[in-house]
Every structure is written in structure tokens, then in C-alpha cells.
Amino acid sequence: MKSTLLNLISLCLLSLSTLAQTRPSDSLRLTSPDGQLQFTFELQPGGVPTYEITHRGNAVVLPSRLGLLKNPAGLSGANDWNRDFRVVGTQKRSQNVTWKPVYGERSTVKDHYNELTITLLPTAPNRPALQLLVRAYDAGVAFRYQFPEDLRAQILDIGQEDTHLKFPPGTDAGST
Fold first, then answer.
1. How confident is the prediction along the chain (176 residues), in pLDDT tens digits per residue?
2. For 74, what's the count of Cα atoms within 13 Å in the CB-facing half-sphere?
3. Distance CA 156, CA 68 (A)
4. pLDDT at site 63
5. For residue 166, what are the β-bridge partners?
6. Model pTM greater than 0.85?
7. What pLDDT is attached to residue 155?
8. What pLDDT shows up at residue 53?
9. What φ, ψ does residue 173 adopt, rounded to 5°?
10. Which of 6, 58, 128, 156 could be a cystine partner for 150, CB 3.0 to 4.6 Å?
């Protein structure tokens, strides 16, 4: 009897640990191939998409908003793309290839990254999905917005980007 009860408890604990490893929030973190950089995506209250980037556990970009804004002089009924989202899908992949450029300083270029595509669906009906495609390289993180094909999104009137970069206090920056 004790053996059966012990086996049942062990099975329950194993099931719980498996569930904990497959939580959706785990799939919203992406690390560089060398593990030094980490990109974290999170939806804040109101479905506001945010991200942060760390290097060796130290903040590089503090939690910052993501999004796109409609063209104020554009189509009537257009909506902003910076809030009221829910995550409906994620997909991860990795690539490690070398390619030869037509010209340049190097005869070969290494293209090694981990990629995460996050599909966001607005909570309002009849609005198409927005995807955030993130790539983490050993040297940095890049992301872009894309709209999957959808008949509801044949015409999108984007006015400006609403992506923020919040740096830790004391950060030195330069621009060209």
C-alpha cells in the first residue's frame, strides 16, 4: 500500500514538473547561441507588448513597449497596434550557416542565431494578427514586425513605430 501511494505521489510530482517546463511563458524567452544574451517578451496589463534584453544577467534594455501606431491622417477605422493583444502562438528555430558575399571585406559570413516568432492577436474582433520575429545572435538582438497574410489586412495604414528603448541609468550611447 505504501509503495503504491509513493508511486502515485512520484507520478504526480513528475507530471507537475513536466507541466512547469512547458508553460507558455518559457517559450517567450530567447537566448543567443552562446547563452550570453537573453530577450524576454511579456504582455503587460491591457495586452501591452513589452520586451527586455539582458547580457550575462545584466540589463541592456529595461522593460520597454513594442508596437505600431496608425496614420492619424489615414484610413478611418484604423487601429493602433500597441495594446489589447493576446499571444496565440510561438515558434522557435535556430540557424547556423555560412554564406559567401558578392563583395566585401570577408570571403565568408557566419549566420548563427536563434529565432522566436510570437503571434499576437488583437482582442477586438475582425483585426488581423501581428507577428514579432526576434533573432538573438552572439553579438546582439534584432526584431521586426510582420503581418501574416490575412484578407482582413489587405490594406494597413501604419503612421509610425511605437517601439521604445529604455536603457539603464548611466548608460552611455552614441549615434551616427
1. 444 433 344 434 334 433 333 334 444 999 999 999 999 999 999 999 999 999 999 999 999 999 999 888 877 667 889 999 999 999 999 999 999 999 989 899 999 999 999 999 999 887 889 999 999 999 999 999 998 887 666 677 788 999 999 999 999 878 77
2. 15
3. 11
4. 96
5. 62
6. no
7. 72
8. 97
9. -140, 155
10. 128
Return the closest-CA partner of residue 132 out of 79, 77, 91: 91
Q: Write down the H helix ranges in 1-138.
A: 2-21
Strand partners, 51: 41, 64
- Smallest CA-to-CA distance from 63 within 91, 47, 40, 45 is with 40
Quote the CA–CA distance of 93 and 100 in Å, as a whole number: 22
Amino acid at 138: D
- Amino acid found at 140: G
Contact by Cβ (8 Å): 50, 65: yes
List the grid coordinates of 143: 526584431
Q: What is the CATH number of domain 21-161?
A: 2.70.98.10
C-alpha cell at 34: 552562446
- The 10 Å Cβ neighbour count of residue 9 is 10
The residue type found at 150 is: D
| Separation of alpha carbons 164 and 63, rounded Å | 9
Domain ranges of the chain: 21-161
Strand partners, 52: 40
